[in-house]
Amino acid sequence: MTHAEPHQKQRLAFVLWGPRTAGLLVLLFLGLILEVLVASGIADPSIVAAPSEMLMSLERLFTKDNLGAAFLITLAQALSATLLAMLIGLPLGWTLFRYEVLGRAYRGWLAAMFAAPLVLLYPLFLVIIGRNYGTTITMGVITGSIPVALYTCEALHKVSPTLLKVGAAFNLTAKQTFTLIQVPAAVPDAFTGIRLGLIYALVNIIGIEFLIDFGGLGRVVSTMFFRYDIPGMYAAIFFIILISLLFLTVLKKVERWLRPV
Amino acid sequence: MTATLEVRNVSKTFESDNGDRIQALAPANLGVKQGEFLSIIGPSGCGKSTLFNIIGGMIPPDSGEVIVNGVSVSGPHKDIGMVFQEESTFPWRTVLDNVAFSLEVAGMEKKERLEKARHFVELVGLTGFEHHFPHQLSGGMRQRTAIARTLASEPRILLMDEPFGALDEQTRLLLGDKLLKICDALKQTTMLITHNITEAVQLSDRVAVMSYRPGTIMRTIDIELPRPRDSELISTDKFAAYVGQIWEDLRTEADRGMKAVGEA
Questions:
Q1: Which residues form a coiled coil (chain A) (predicted)?
Q2: CA of B227 to nearest chain A CA: how many angstroms apart?
């Protein structure tokens, strides 16, 4: 072993964990400041909950308000919505890629819809479908399928022409080119769309749950809000943030696995 | 000996975005014999890659024909294996799976194709890297993987478009040595497109020199250097004489090309 190796290992550990530790310390510091502000009465406890109170409320949310079950309900809805978004978005993305005229005609529209606050459509579905999981999942599917379609189309466009030439040189049929080259080459970029689709679906589902006081995590926040349980409401929001972080971390890991470079 | 590959009166004209017609290839004629290593050298923009794409069946010629073993061919042909200048390994496949690609397409059983692929991995000197992905390899190793993948399909003619173009000079020379050994071992008929005179002389039995646009074969030079060869050859007087001779032919054309680009 050379002398440089332990030093390099230390440096690598710092590069990996330094920013994470710094981020956590800043979060703890801000939490501490908030705690002091609430304890000293500078911050109004009827508007802002002390972090310690919020953390203690978490346990209550799990035992009395079924936060665990609410999480599972939201998770099931988000996964169902993402699955449906994939069933719609993947073929739609391929169609926009395959038929250039359609792509040129509708990609701009889809991109505009991607940027629009589609959550505002919820009253329409509330009237058509009713106050049930149909509405929440439909909103998740609509918002989730747009990034899936856009990124799938983009991913197929981005496949290296050289790889396609390799396929042609080996006399591949159109079907073989699609399955053996285009699809695997497009997977990493298309997955970015699926990741965004899942996140958009999750955010919208929680948002609609809150607005219509129905379902999983969003309903818990809504209940706390109407109960005027400020620490409970912040605890539920904190839990949602944790869940989002967990989702993001897992999806990023899958994405890195798919795109190792 | 009859030619394994023959290019007969092949020409090609492209239309530019502003509607100008650019004649990339004037009628070009060329033949490659069984087991021969022929390099085509020419200045930038002389239509080397156009000729490569026409021979490989990637684009059709405006006139003329490409004949493989006496049969006129159009489109990609199983007897011609192509190696591209750009990165062409499949990033989602390991070295072994990359090399086994053509065998998989041909429907060969998994065990058999992996066994055969291993042979070609060994041939290009990548034993020990079978389960590495392309991003874990150097540029030279990735290009060797691409060559092994093409060789695994057992083409009669190996057609390469500046396969070492993106590599540094030392790696290029060493890979040239490797390629010489492979071609000697397989008695592989090879056509190499290059703009590197040293590479052309080091590897070839014959070098065809192309003119600047519209590209055509100006003349071919027999490289009468002993085989087996390696890169030590480049320090000999005879090698230098061939390089000088080719450069003499190329200089005027390269100069013409530079002026044309400057005027454009």
A1: none
A2: 31
CATH fit for domain A57-258, picks 1.10.3720.10, 3.40.50.970, 1.10.8.60, 1.10.10.10: 1.10.3720.10
Q: How far is CA B81 from CA A163, A216, B46, B56, B232, in A?
A: 14, 59, 23, 8, 29
Write the residue in A160, A169, A181 that is nearest to B76 by C-beta.
Answer: A169
Average of per-residue pLDDT across A116-121? 89
Strand partners, B80: B157
Q: ipTM higher than 0.90?
A: no
Residue with tokens 């908030």: A34
How many angstroms separate the CA atoms of B205 and B34, rounded?
A: 12
Average pLDDT, integer, range B26-54: 92
Chains A–B, number of C-beta pairs less than 8 Å apart = 52
Confidence band of A1 (pLDDT split at 50, 70, 90): very low
- Is B133–A260 a contact, with Cβ atoms under 8 angstroms apart? yes
Q: With an 8 Å Cβ cutoff, is B76 touching chain A?
A: yes
Chain A partners within 8 Å of B150 (Cβ):
169
Is residue B95 within 8 Å of B130, Cβ to Cβ? yes
Q: Do A260 and B153 touch (CB under 8 A)?
A: no
